[in-house]
């Protein structure tokens, strides 16, 4: 196990009845709030009105940053910084899924820097302090509610890149599983695929002795596999929604990667798909992951993939470990396709072969020449994985 | 799943090379340190000298509270408070296992209250603030390095009771698995049994829908079962020591009990054994747990115990679920007895039948009349479990 520091101080307020604590939690940090949200679903659900009422009853001044996109764009961060500065705000309440929270983190750091927010994402500038952030999560997927990072899209440069800073870890996050009752089957499936992908990116590593972390990762994968189909069939099943929501936080808050080197593989490949075609991130991850695992299956990785099959899908171990590993991959593919009803080819989400080469080149370039994950992937490797996913 | 708040902000510095950060971490909080430790093993190992050198090089003033007992006694807390007040200290560095850290937490809270420290333990006084604490862990067992509670013994009243306060959560903990290389086989086994007991106290609950938490608990149990015997046979096996050490923190830091009601059962019974006979806590837990599970096995609990056997020990599920559950219990007993070489009867640790009645009465009384765990245990139930353990 490698040396590591684990320091995740986000206070999680989980359950049906936590909004009563919202004003008190905000007032630990500030009283002039930027309320950031997305396309208005929080207005339809009544959550927006509930928040505004709490603000008014508690003399909390607020301004709004609305319309944050599903793949959040740097323009929204520029607008957020402008609103913060013009109104001398001291706290950000991000209400939404990962995109809203990710974007809010960039705003929280950018407001203290005399540069364009995009400079932070491309590492021209570094966050040295940030406004405190609280979140109210409306979609279980990215884990942004309990981690310090985010992913931002720049449509002009066709880039979708990750950034992070310890200063942008949320101070608190309110997780009410009931809020996710209105998430439709497609986005529930995409969220579960995203949680599973985070878990697998942390799980698929070689010979690092992080046994406990891998057993915990398997527990999270089993949770997603058990409750994903239930949440799709019964959107108001509290047990399913609560398990998926809590899993979203632990898949990516850092516990699963403690003691390991976990440079990710599938996310950098998927980011090009959604940067070029604006597809749903979780769907892209589901499509690519089984093809990625098939592509990297070799003498070095076979035990790792076989363990995944045995411990997560109950594959019966046989003499033929390659066959066991292939069964593991087939189980994963089948789970996404049949149990979660995810379109499992790029063609079904509107991606043909025209830009595969360009995307593969970009994926390699954005990872510094090649993706250095559990197995190094150069441009041609990435292209093969894209082609296998058509 | 029940509503909950999870807020574990302890910064964990894990690995071989973290002492370099000690002075910086302390100076985030203070510069006049109470150095608390136990019986002097840290002097034999060289850790004491290393710490003093760091203090001297960084102009950190310090006073010592030494000789804290394995079942820490309230007298030590009184002494600690006196040293703190006389020297105007502003930080406590607890170097040791759970007993040293537990005692230090009581001192940290008691110094701000005008009462005897024991009043806190018996809930006559309440901690409202506390001095900041850092820890250097030398034994993987109690999880005190990442939780807010402690257990204190009062020899005069023959009481061993738990207390806790959010203010006494350690600010940071340094976990170096190499420090535990010198822990002998007996105490390694007792530590692993303690970690497993914490996990099982959180795991054995009924119908709460906390599926993910139970899968994570199984991951921690599998980690203990896998590495416990390795750490005993190869005390300098870093992989084994690091997995056990990291497991110790997660067994009890609150994650496994999120969303559940988890009043504990075996700990209150064991606390009387070590209050009356001063036996090693983890050994007492190992002896009692299989007898406890056998005693509570019934139509309500059979699925829970069977799941434990299937998911942790790989018991093949059969038509006869009671038999499967009995196999689970037998596997646990066999693991402690044969793989961990733990004496599995009270007789072997010097406890005969003379005080069983008195201890059973005390265990019930200290839990408010009866132990309200997964199954309620009255005095007579506790007595039966003690008798079955003779």
From TrEMBL, chains A, B:
CDD domains: BDH (cd08187). One of its GO terms (molecular function) is butanol dehydrogenase (NAD+) activity. It comes from the Bacteria. Coiled coil: none annotated. InterPro entries: ADH_Fe/GldA, ADH_Fe_C, ADH_Fe_CS, BDH-like. PROSITE patterns: ADH_IRON_2 (PS00060). GO terms for cellular component: cytosol. This is Butanol dehydrogenase. It comes from Peptoniphilus porci.
């Amino acid at each position: 196990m490698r040396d590591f520091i684990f320091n995740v101080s986000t206070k999680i307020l989980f359950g049906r009845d936590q909004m009563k604590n919202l004003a008190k939690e905000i007032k630990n940090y500030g009283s002039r709030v930027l309320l950031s949200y997305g396309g208005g679903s929080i207005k339809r659900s009544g959550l927006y009105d509930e928040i505004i009422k709490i603000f008014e009853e508690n003399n909390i001044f607020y301004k709004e940053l609305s319309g944050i996109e599903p793949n959040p764009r740097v323009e929204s961060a520029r607008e957020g910084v402008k609103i913060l500065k013009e109104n001398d705000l001291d706290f950000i309440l991000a209400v939404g899924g990962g995109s809203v929270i990710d974007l809010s983190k960039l705003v929280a750091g950018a407001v203290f820097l005399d540069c364009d927010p995009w400079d932070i994402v491309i590492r021209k500038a570094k966050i040295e302090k940030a406004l405190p952030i609280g979140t109210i999560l409306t979609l279980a997927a990215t884990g942004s509610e309990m981690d310090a990072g985010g992913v931002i899209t720049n449509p002009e440069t066709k880039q979708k890149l990750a950034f992070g800073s310890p200063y942008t870890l949320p101070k608190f996050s309110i997780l009410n599983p009931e809020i996710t009752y209105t998430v439709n089957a497609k986005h529930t499936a995409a969220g579960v695929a995203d949680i599973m992908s985070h878990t697998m990116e942390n799980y698929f590593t070689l010979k690092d002795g992080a046994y406990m972390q891998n057993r915990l990762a398997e527990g999270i994968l089993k949770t997603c596999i058990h409750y994903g189909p239930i949440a799709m069939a019964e959107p108001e099943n509290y047990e399913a929604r609560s398990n998926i929501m809590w899993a979203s936080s632990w898949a990516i808050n850092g516990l699963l990667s403690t003691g390991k080197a976990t440079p990710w593989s599938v996310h950098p490949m998927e980011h090009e798909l959604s940067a070029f075609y604006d597809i749903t991130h979780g769907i892209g991850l589901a499509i690519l992951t089984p093809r990625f695992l098939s592509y990297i299956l070799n003498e070095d990785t076979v035990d790792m993939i076989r363990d995944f099959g045995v411990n997560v899908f109950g594959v019966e171990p046989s003499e033929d470990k390659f066959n066991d590993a292939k069964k593991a991959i087939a189980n994963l593919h089948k789970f996404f396709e049949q149990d979660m009803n995810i379109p499992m080819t790029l063609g079904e989400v509107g991606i043909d072969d025209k830009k595969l080469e360009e995307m593969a080149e970009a994926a390699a370039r954005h990872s510094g020449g090649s993706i250095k994950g559990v197995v190094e992937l150069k441009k041609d490797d990435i292209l093969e994985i894209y082609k296998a996913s058509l």
